[in-house]
Amino acid sequence: MIAEQRRPSSAERILKILVVDDHRTFADLFALALTGMPDLECVGTAHNSAEALSKAEQLEPDVVVMDVRLGTEDGIEVTERLADAHPGIRIVVLTAHADRALMNRAAKAGACCLLPKDGSLPDMLSALRAARPGGFTVDPALLRTLVAEQTEQRAPVPTLTAREAQVIQLLARGNDVQTVAKELGISVHTCRGYVKSLLSKLDAHSQLEAVTLALRLGLVDV
To answer: What predicted TM-score, i.e. pTM, was given to this entire model?
Structure first.
């Protein structure tokens, strides 16, 4: 599928992208796909952790596209090192298969998005444009796959208030707390209170885990 080109507005600037993947063909093809995008520019490719760290320092990309595996190296560990060295950098992790542990590791490492490596090019480009530091979103297809693969005993379904249900639904759509608060017309402090209540009711340790559990329990749709 050919990705639709879009013109950046006068307030936008071109996003610089660094592609990190040990499969050179994939990295080169992804870089080529960005060539025709007026608002996205691939400034380089890297194929291992040393190259990724060096080129991030040299090229100062806005967004890093990171494969979860770099040969024998762990892409999540590289993500953490990049996030520590370059606060504010946006790291989008690509994976062929996601489980709850991987998603939690990616979020804690500083990634802002988790995408399927076999996803469509338009979806990937949209994710690059929407990536924001400090947040973490997961592709809906990956979330549905995770829910479908859950084999443990179904837990009791907690009762949510109407507002809690609205909050978890918006979180499941990939919004951060600030966006959810704005959408619902409440303060960020109040929204965080609802999130804290949701974590308690769902026995979750993070927003990502809460969304995953809510999906498995049928509390939200994506």
So the answer is: 0.66
